[in-house]
């Protein structure tokens, strides 16, 4: 006798109801899910290729930080050795190593102490009077982690200053950062925001020599360097190396206009910065004071009077540029330059078009499959189409409940699953047909058809599931989305074919008690 | 009246075509490898790195030939420009620029300026060389791992001969799909890898259904020759094979026609996969099985006819 235990019937009903509850927000909610707040689930999470947005894979140039850190340590050592009155020579940073020689062997103990005080992130070796310092493995890893995490924080502040856009900013591997920013109109602006470290410094211009002379002589006075102008005027400046005030002392920055109504950025300094700024400007009235951004001179106005807490950066800016500059200055400097390894930016128009095309393809796909099923199996085909509808509801519900990301290939995965979902029903129906042609009664044929088809259904679906699994493991972005929908589709189509269609059939058999079956 | 693409109770001697199919498949695989070696694949930026820009003309049809001249004069190296889906849409591909990532970003900006305000940029993709190499590596790994997992599963569920036959049939499908891409010069990208894996999944699904029936018939009809059993199993499952292929093809056709330009290549590859997968399940997998000496399930029962499950206790 055809049996279908009560618990199985209940299971089907419970799953179907849950499916409808979780799928419903997608249907009745607005674009942002409003109006469906009384339901537990959320709407499907659309991938960037459907809602539009920017996907960026960045590499943090840790080597640049490493070099900078070692140079800082070199300066620290120079100061400490002088303070301890240890005589030394040959202080140099090369090949990721700081090296120096001390003059007197009796300073060895003190020297060792200075190196020890630097912390445990370095290895120090000495060969007679020559000392060498480099990052050890743990120190390097810690530095890397620190740099990447700081970068993530700065990126977040630059891309999402109001905290409303919900960007994904994740560390990937050792030195990479994945940024996924939904709803971007101008991906170039995003890249401009990330494309500079925004290291701001104020340094005095060296008046002992003009830039032209320095270029002619091919060298600058000690303690000074030659720097290019940030604008295209081709000017150069001789700048004192000593940083008077730096961007870390900024309290705020806003886009504004100068007295000539040209776009400018005004800034305010924190207390410490204001004190330093006041001291430097007070002592150097009449000298040009360079404002340097990422190693280039933005402007070098002459100090007219002592200035304290605030000032203005003027230069060759457009309004958009001052807005961006103010934003990156507020967010702070990146600890290291970012290198864009991969970019995928989709405009919102394309995303909307893709959703529309995907929806049309899905609806027409279902209709075609439904017509074919009913033409081939009649009433039973209709039952299978009913199960297919449940299947689609379950896929949508599962995607919503798991908050998996639906991508454009994911829509293809759903449409493909529809074609394949009926396969399990086809297997069962063909079996029933065979059993019928052997002269079995309707009920015996249905029962035996299900019994025999199940192992085939499991075998064939599990093998497809393997393909989906490896797509998920090795895939990235949209492909992962495809694997998720394919996997979910396989699971739900097995459930609907084995349980839901069967429940329909059992229900029908119990009511009609057919003795003859045409299939 | 029911629609039946396959008449009931067919008795086609599929194995009669084994030799022909063997020659055909050998040619197909050899040809695919040859095409791959000689012509090679039209690798997308996913794997070789580079820039892809999709743009739409604001007001009317895109002026492709005019733009081509403008873009080529930028000196960005190998640039390809083609219509994409509709006459207002264009797809621009630019080779990886010499120099570091900044050079790539600059090239994107240059193209954006050249397109000017007449065009909306709808999509920008840039893949650097390191990432491209990693994606290629992962793609190959995904295909190989999936094939191995499938092989182990079939071995576990059936006999080793089934597993060998299935994996050879699958390799046949994968190689001939790659051959198709080499021949047609369709772009080979990450979506293609996904299509190949789905083809593998579909094809093995088909093969397993037939194998399941073979296993069942091997136990049931001990007096039949292997060839008869294989033919009988194929005939018994033929109706289902055709039915499932047609439903899947219907769904895929809907994607090709209505799913938009981005999914079209993917769906075309899948259609090829459904056709080749169905062919290989019938002629390659089962054909190979006929060459093996397969253990007949002696351990099962002894009266030659297995009782249907519902009659057992």
Description:
The complex is a heterodimer of chains A (519) and B (313). Chain A is built from 13 helices and 19 strands. Chain A is of the alpha+beta class and 519 residues long. In chain A, the strands form six sheets. Chain A has a four-stranded antiparallel β-sheet. A four-stranded antiparallel β-sheet of chain A has the order 3-4-6-5. A four-stranded antiparallel β-sheet of chain A has the order 12-9-15-16. In chain A, a hairpin with a 2-residue loop joins strand 3 and strand 4 (97-102). The radius of gyration of chain A is 35 Å and the shape is elongated. Chain A starts with 5 loop residues before the first helix and ends in a 7-residue tail after the last helix. The relative contact order of chain A is 0.12. Chain B has 313 residues and is an alpha+beta fold. Chain B has helices spanning 18-38, 45-48, 64-72, 101-115, 129-157, 160-184, 190-220, 226-258, 261-291, and strands at 42-43, 50-57, 79-84, 86-94, 119-127, 187-188. In chain B, the strands form two sheets. Chain B has a four-stranded antiparallel β-sheet. In chain B, a hairpin with a 1-residue loop joins strand 3 and strand 4 (86-94). In chain B, helix 1 packs across helix 6. Chains A and B meet through helix 6, strand 18, helix 10, helix 11 and helix 12 of A and helix 4, strand 5, helix 5, helix 7 and helix 8 of B. Strand 18 (338-346) of chain A pairs antiparallel with strand 5 of chain B.
Overall tally of structural domains of chain A:
3
- Class based on secondary structure composition and strand pairing of chain A: alpha+beta
Task: Please report the first level of CATH classification, the CATH class of the largest domain in chain A.
Answer: Mainly Alpha
Count of helical stretches of chain A:
13
The oligomerization state is heterodimer
Radius of gyration of chain A using CA atoms only: 35 Å
Low-confidence stretches of chain A: none
Query: For the report, how would you describe the main beta sheet of chain B?
Result: 4 strands, antiparallel
Query: Can you name the CATH architecture of the largest domain in chain B?
Result: Up-down Bundle
Regions with little confidence, pLDDT below 50 for 5+ residues of chain B: 299-313
The CATH homologous superfamily of the largest domain in chain B = Multidrug efflux transporter AcrB transmembrane domain
Strand order of the largest sheet of chain B: 3-4-2-5
Mean pLDDT figure of chain A: 86
How many structural domains does the protein architecture of chain B include? Answer: 2
Tally the beta strands of chain A. Answer: 19
Q: Percentage of helical residues of chain A?
A: 40-55%
- What global shape of chain B is seen? elongated
In the CATH scheme, the class of the largest domain in chain B would be: Mainly Alpha
Number of DSSP strand runs of chain B:
6
Give the end-to-end Cα distance of chain B, rounded to a whole number of Å: 38 Å
Helix and strand run of chain B: HEHEHEEHEHHEHHH
């Amino acid at each position: 006798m055809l049996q279908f235990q009560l618990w199985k019937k209940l299971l089907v009903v419970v799953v179907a109801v849950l499916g409808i509850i979780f799928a419903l927000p997608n249907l009745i909610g607005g674009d942002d899910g409003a109006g469906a707040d009384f339901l537990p689930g959320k709407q499907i999470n659309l991938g960037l290729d459907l809602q539009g947005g920017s996907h960026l894979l960045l590499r943090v140039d840790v080597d640049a930080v490493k070099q900078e850190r070692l140079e800082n340590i070199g300066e620290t050592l120079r100061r400490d050795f002088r303070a301890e009155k240890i005589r030394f020579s040959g202080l140099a940073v090369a090949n990721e190593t700081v090296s120096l020689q001390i003059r007197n062997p009796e300073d060895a103990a003190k020297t060792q102490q200075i190196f020890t005080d630097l912390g445990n992130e370095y290895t120090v070796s000495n060969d007679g009077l020559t000392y060498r310092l480099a990052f050890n493995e743990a120190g390097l890893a810690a530095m890397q982690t620190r740099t990447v995490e700081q970068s993530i924080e700065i990126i977040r502040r630059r891309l999402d200053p109001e905290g409303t856009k919900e960007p994904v900013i994740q560390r990937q591997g050792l030195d990479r950062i994945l940024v996924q920013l939904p709803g971007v109109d101008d991906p170039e602006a995003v890249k401009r925001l990330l494309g500079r470290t925004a290291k701001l410094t104020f340094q005095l211009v060296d008046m002992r020599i003009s830039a032209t002379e320095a270029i002619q002589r091919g060298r600058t006075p000690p303690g000074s360097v030659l720097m290019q102008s940030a604008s295209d005027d081709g000017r150069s400046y001789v700048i004192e190396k000593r940083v008077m005030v730096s961007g870390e002392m900024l309290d705020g920055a806003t886009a504004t206009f100068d007295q000539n109504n040209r776009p400018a950025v005004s800034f305010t300094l924190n207390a410490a910065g204001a004190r330093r700024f006041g001291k430097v400007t007070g002592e150097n009235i009449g000298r040009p004071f360079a404002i340097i951004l990422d190693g280039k001179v933005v402007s070098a106005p002459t100090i007219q009077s002592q200035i304290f807490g605030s000032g203005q950066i003027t230069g060759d800016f457009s309004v958009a540029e001052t807005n961006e500059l103010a934003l990156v200055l507020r967010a702070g400097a990146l600890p290291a330059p970012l290198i864009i390894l991969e970019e995928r930016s989709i405009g919102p128009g394309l995303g909307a078009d893709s959703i529309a095309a995907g929806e049309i393809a899905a609806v027409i796909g279902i209709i075609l499959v439904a017509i074919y099923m009913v033409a081939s199996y009649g009433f039973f085909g209709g039952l299978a189409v009913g199960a297919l509808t449940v299947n689609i509801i379950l896929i949508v519900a599962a995607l919503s409940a798991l908050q998996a990301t639906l991508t454009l290939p994911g829509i293809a995965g759903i449409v493909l699953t529809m074609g394949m979902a009926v396969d399990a029903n086809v297997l069962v129906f063909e079996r029933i047909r065979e059993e019928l042609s052997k002269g079995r009664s309707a009920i015996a044929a249905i029962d035996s058809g299900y019994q025999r088809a199940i192992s085939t259904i499991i075998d064939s679906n599990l093998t497809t599931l393997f393909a989906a699994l490896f797509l998920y493991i090795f895939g990235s972005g949209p492909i992962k989305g495809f694997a998720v929908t394919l996997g979910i589709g396989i699971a739900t189509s097995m459930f609907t074919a084995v349980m839901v269609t069967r429940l329909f059939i059992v229900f029908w058999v119990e009511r009609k008690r057919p003795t003859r079956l045409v299939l | 009246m029911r629609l039946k693409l396959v008449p009931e109770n067919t008795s086609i001697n599929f194995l009669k075509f084994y030799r022909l199919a063997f020659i055909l498949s050998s040619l197909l695989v050899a040809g695919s490898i040859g095409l791959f070696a000689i012509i090679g694949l039209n690798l997308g930026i996913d794997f070789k790195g580079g820039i892809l820009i999709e743009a739409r003309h604001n007001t009317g049809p895109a002026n492709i030939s005019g733009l081509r001249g403008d873009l080529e004069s930028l000196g960005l190296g190998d640039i390809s420009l083609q219509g994409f889906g509709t006459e207002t849409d264009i797809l621009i591909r630019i080779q990886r620029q010499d120099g570091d990532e900044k050079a790539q970003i600059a090239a994107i900006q240059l193209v954006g300026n050249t397109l000017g305000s007449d065009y909306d940029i709808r999509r920008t993709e840039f893949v650097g060389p390191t990432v491209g190499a990693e994606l290629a590596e992962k793609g190959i790994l995904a295909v190989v791992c999936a094939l191995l997992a499938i092989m182990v599963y079939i071995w576990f569920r059936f006999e080793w001969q089934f597993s060998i036959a299935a994996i050879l049939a699958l390799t046949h499908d994968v190689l001939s799909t790659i051959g198709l891409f080499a021949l047609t010069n369709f772009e080979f990208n990450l979506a293609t890898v996904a299509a190949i894996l789905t083809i593998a999944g579909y094809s093995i699904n088909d093969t397993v259904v037939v194998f399941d029936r073979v296993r069942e018939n091997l136990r049931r009809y001990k007096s039949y020759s292997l060839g008869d059993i294989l033919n009988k199993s194929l005939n018994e499952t033929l109706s289902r094979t055709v039915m499932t292929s047609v439903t899947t093809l219907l769904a895929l056709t809907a994607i090709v026609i209505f799913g938009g330009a981005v999914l079209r290549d993917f769906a075309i590859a899948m259609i090829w996969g459904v056709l080749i997968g169905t062919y290989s399940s019938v002629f390659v997998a089962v054909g190979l099985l006929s060459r093996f000496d397969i253990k007949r399930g002696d351990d099962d029962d002894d009266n030659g006819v297995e009782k249907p499950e519902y009659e057992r206790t």
